[in-house]
Design goal:
heterodimer, A: 11 strands, globular, B: eight-stranded mixed sheet, elongated
């Protein structure tokens, strides 16, 4: 049951081969067996079985939709009524939201069964899932290695086939990089496509919800259900969500794939570079054409990102002050002392580092030199993409310069950690959709991600190309040993 | 040395929207603590602001009324600081691009009109309230007010005396009420004022160091606080000291200002554009609709009252201070045959006295405009005298009916029958030989006594004009 597509599962349930309850039990038991991965912060077995029972009633009554009864898990950044939402932080370790995020509500309305909340880097700040208050997540391909981050729990869970699909969020690569490092499919839609209401904010102008799945088809199905305008999010787009699955089977003949030379430089590990070249040849064999494009400002993506994201984060995280909810220090002298102790105790090292960077770049006298300058660079990066898309329909390259690295390897070197997202950051800065699909393995058997970037609002093309690639290859069907 | 005072005011006006500026919470005043504080107001993780267009509409209305530039695109920014009643740890405000740009307001502090520049007016959300000592050693937080829409109106440093500052505030207060964008209730904090005060040698071009006075929430306190602060600064400078740039709090009980925080302690608010809210774009249709809804402004209406109704400038100004009062006047003036001046006198006199006595606004008056017009008609057609009319007014106020029925029931109709008046006049002249003699000897003043006697005998009902004429005719005979 755990190696089948969502459409397969839905068909089987419709035929009565098994129920959502049985399916849910199956995945819950796999989750319990895979506890050593530390992929989950909260498991909601009882609630999942209630939802599955309700889904079974809908299936029997013939009122089921394409997602009814399909189990899933949420990244612990999405607020879930009555279930803890920790955001991977001590600050929110005991926080229970009174409301559901829009994404959570929409997927529940679609009949999906939520089995729990996945581990993540604290407040989504990290590329290895090591900054979580609840401990590091392990990569199911090699448990001494990281799964990537920040959506490491969601990625590990889907890779190990503990859940057919998971929600995730991506501020600078937090869906696509873990998808790459765990050998699965992860899509970050265009900024504004998915409501941010109920998604704990990291960097508001960059954050975007998306999906981790084993295939582009599954990702398309779930994305369609969670996307769309939300009156509670002023940055969500009043645009019709395309029927993503309707165009998956279209030929990619004559699609033009742009290859930025900046994505194929020295920083990329040789095995990764080779696998991406093979994948591009595969796409050419399917009829796509390639053209070299330029993204001349891509090298400033990381510095630009690490000014803007911390700036917004420093403000977004101000609400965690120990006054109304969240961690409050047990002992304090006065109000200021309460703030300082509560935040010093409640936030981990990486979060504090980013709050300090963000506070600094916004402070009087430095604002123009950092924040305003970074906003200008952001515009230049977006303009680069616009120019590149005059010559191509999508852009391809590696998702991450390397494969999964050992747990602890980059902990003392934040810059080395930040460089993991060198190819993904700029996509968030430009607000574009991006997808990562598995495109093979390195010499250690670790997965390599192919990154496809689309035009603004054009998730359709990258899903179509990713699906066609998956029809022609079998990488996405390869599960880590021990979890097949 | 002669000193010149320079004052600029920042006024926070609570806008009269039903719901808050970024959430659906009610803005009603006085509810139990935290009962009007939804997920957005208490800043739960993951919540987002959504702009209430009504607040923008009211802000634009104000902008148009002061002849200001309206920014078609304005930007919300975050003002970051920590305080327990500021739930997000930042206030959503407008910084570099406010909705309302430069405009002006004409005031009359008593020595002729003066134009005060308004630098800008921007939208922002209010914070909650800290209730110190509300429960033992703890400070309670009430977030009902958090997110209430405010318009912060910043003036140029154009005022030169406490009296001008008060005149500006009164004019602004009247205007926001007139426009219906705020109830202006100062007790409830709907109209709050901070003052920037500095002094400089008279004739100097450069501004002196200013202090910012906070917490001055009545017209009287504004005047007193500024007056105190001017004295304080003059004392410092005349003693050879220097004024420190700082924020000072006005203590009404002690009538003094005291230091709250110095410039060095001032917050670095780290303003930046709020990424949760796209720039607010005002379309042509929206602006046209607001312009359409704009009432006749007090200034224009005042002039019209002088021109069209022939009112004295001071009376016209007083009438147009409150839109409802001006509306009431116009309704009476249109409905009655009496002179508009008479209507004005009655409204500013009897009616206002009665309203003030009960502390109710004109729209709650127990005598509506038609009823007052009915009373004034009876004066105009000489059915009753002005004096009798005051009694009728009281009876009307006490709910005894309209003017005609009260006049009828009490038999107050003026005696205009010439024969009847002549009879009483003859009676009085016969009983007052001394006065008649005095009159004929040239003492014209005694006529007043004789009129009074006639009025007394007719219980005030005789038409005074007729009595006067009849008396003179008979005495001159």
């Amino acid at each position: 049951m755990h190696n089948r597509s969502i459409r397969d599962l839905a068909r089987s349930m419709a035929r009565g081969e098994y129920s959502s309850t049985e399916l849910t039990r199956h995945f819950l038991s796999r989750m319990a067996d895979a506890g050593d991965l530390n992929a989950f912060i909260t498991v909601t077995g009882d609630q999942a079985l209630e939802q599955a029972a309700e889904a079974d009633r809908r299936i029997r009554s013939g009122s089921a939709g394409p997602l009814t009864g399909i189990p899933m898990v949420h990244k612990d950044i999405f607020c879930t009524a009555g279930v803890p939402t920790t955001c991977g932080s001590k600050m929110l370790a005991d926080f229970v939201s009174p409301y559901d995020a829009t994404v959570v509500r929409r997927l529940a309305e679609a009949g999906m069964v939520s089995m729990g909340k996945t581990n993540m880097d604290e407040f989504a700040m990290g590329s290895s899932n090591e900054s979580s208050h609840f401990g590091a997540v392990k990569n199911p391909w090699e448990t001494s290695r990281v799964p990537g981050g920040s959506s490491g729990g969601s990625a590990a869970a889907v890779a190990a086939r503990l859940s057919p699909v998971a929600t995730a969020t991506d501020t600078g690569g937090s869906i696509r990089q873990p998808a790459a490092l765990c050998g699965i499919t992860g899509i970050k839609p265009s900024y504004g496509r998915v409501s941010r209401y109920g998604m704990v904010a990291f960097a508001s102008s960059l954050d975007q919800g998306g999906v981790l799945a084993t295939s582009a088809e599954d990702a398309a199905l779930v994305l369609e259900a969670m996307a769309g305008f939300d009156e509670r999010d002023s940055t969500s787009l009043e645009q019709q969500v395309p029927d993503y699955t309707a165009t998956l089977e279209e030929s990619i003949r004559d699609k033009v794939i742009g290859l930025p030379k900046e994505f194929f430089g020295d920083g990329v590990e040789p095995d990764v570079a080779d696998a991406i070249q093979d994948a591009i040849r595969e796409l050419e064999a399917l009829g796509a054409r390639t053209v070299e494009v330029e993204l001349p400002n891509s090298e400033i993506g990381i510095p630009c990102y690490y000014v803007l994201a911390p700036a917004e984060a420093s403000s977004n995280l101000s609400r965690f002050d120990g006054v109304r909810y969240g961690h409050r220090a047990a002992q304090f002298e006065d109000l200021i002392d309460m703030y300082e102790r509560s935040r010093a105790e409640g936030f981990g090292e990486e979060v504090q580092r980013r709050i300090m960077i963000g506070t600094y770049v916004l402070s009087s006298g430095y604002y123009d030199a950092y924040y305003i300058k970074a906003q200008k660079l952001r515009r230049m990066i977006a303009d680069d993409f616009t120019r590149a898309f005059e010559r191509c329909d999508l852009i391809a390259g590696p998702t991450s310069p390397g494969t999964a690295f050992p747990i602890g390897a980059k902990n003392d070197d934040p810059i080395a950690m930040y460089l993991n997202d060198i190819f993904t950051n700029s996509v968030n800065l430009a607000g574009l959709p991006g997808i990562s699909v598995n495109a093979g393995f390195d010499r250690d058997g670790l997965p390599i991600g192919l990154h496809l970037i689309g035009r603004y609002l054009d998730e359709t093309t990258i899903l179509n190309v990713a699906h066609q690639f998956q029809q022609a290859t079998d990488w996405h069907n390869t599960a880590p040993g021990g979890y097949a | 040395m002669k000193w010149e005072t320079v004052i600029g005011l920042e006024v926070h006006v609570q806008l009269m929207t039903r719901s808050k500026i970024f959430s659906g919470d009610s803005t009603a005043y006085g509810a139990a603590p935290n009962t009007q504080a939804c997920d957005v107001s208490i800043a739960l993780p993951g919540v987002l602001p959504v702009m209430n267009r009504e607040a923008a509409r009211l802000a634009v209305k104000f902008g148009m009324a002061i002849g200001a530039e309206i920014n078609r695109t304005s930007v919300f920014a975050r003002k970051n600081y920590f305080y327990p009643d500021l739930p997000k740890g930042y206030q959503i405000s407008q910084y570099e691009t406010p909705i309302v740009g430069r405009g002006s307001l004409e005031i009359d502090p008593g020595d002729g009109p003066k134009t005060i520049g308004i630098t800008r007016a921007h939208l922002e959300e209010d914070a909650g309230k800290s209730l110190h000592g509300s429960s033992g050693d703890f400070t309670g937080i009430d977030l009902n007010r958090a997110g209430t829409p405010l318009l912060e109106i910043v003036s140029e440093p154009d005022m030169r005396s406490p009296a001008e500052a008060v005149a500006y505030l009164r004019q602004l207060h009247a205007l926001v009420r007139y426009l219906g964008i705020s109830d202006g209730n100062m007790q409830e904090g709907s109209f709050r004022c901070d003052a920037n005060v500095s002094i400089r040698p008279l004739g100097a071009a450069e501004l002196g160091t200013r202090t910012e006075l906070k917490n001055i929430n009545s017209f009287r306190f504004v005047e007193k606080a500024i007056r105190y602060e001017i004295e304080r600064q003059i004392d410092i400078l005349e003693d050879g000291g220097t004024v420190v740039q700082e924020t000072r709090l006005y203590d009404a009980d002690r009538d003094e200002t005291r230091s709250m925080r110095s410039k060095e302690e001032a917050h670095d608010y780290r303003y930046f554009p709020d990424p949760d809210l796209p720039p607010m774009v005002l379309e042509d249709a929206f602006l046209a609709e607001v312009k359409e809804s704009l009432p006749e402004l007090p200034h224009d209406r005042r002039h019209r009252f002088i021109e069209h109704y022939g009112l004295a400038p001071a009376d016209a100004a007083q009438l147009t201070n409150e839109r409802t009062q001006a509306d009431y006047f116009e309704a009476v003036a249109e409905a009655t045959n009496a002179e508009p001046r008479t209507a004005c006198n009655w409204i500013l006199g009897e009616l206002n006295a009665a309203l003030n006595q009960e502390g109710i606004p004109v729209e709650a008056s127990r005598i509506d405009s038609d009823a007052l017009a009915g009373l004034l008609d009876r004066i105009a057609d000489s059915s009753i005298s002005g004096k009798i009319a005051k009694d009728v007014f009281s009876a009307m106020w006490n709910g005894e009916g309209d003017a005609d029925s009260i006049i009828e029931a009490r038999g107050l109709r003026q005696i205009t029958d010439t024969g009847a008046i002549e009879a009483v006049v003859d009676e009085v002249l016969a009983a007052s030989p001394d006065q008649v003699r005095q009159f004929r000897e040239g003492n014209q003043k005694v006529i007043g006594f004789l009129v009074g006697q006639v009025m007394k005998k007719t219980r005030g009902k005789a038409n005074p004009k007729q009595v006067n004429e009849t008396l003179r005719r008979k005495l001159d005979a």
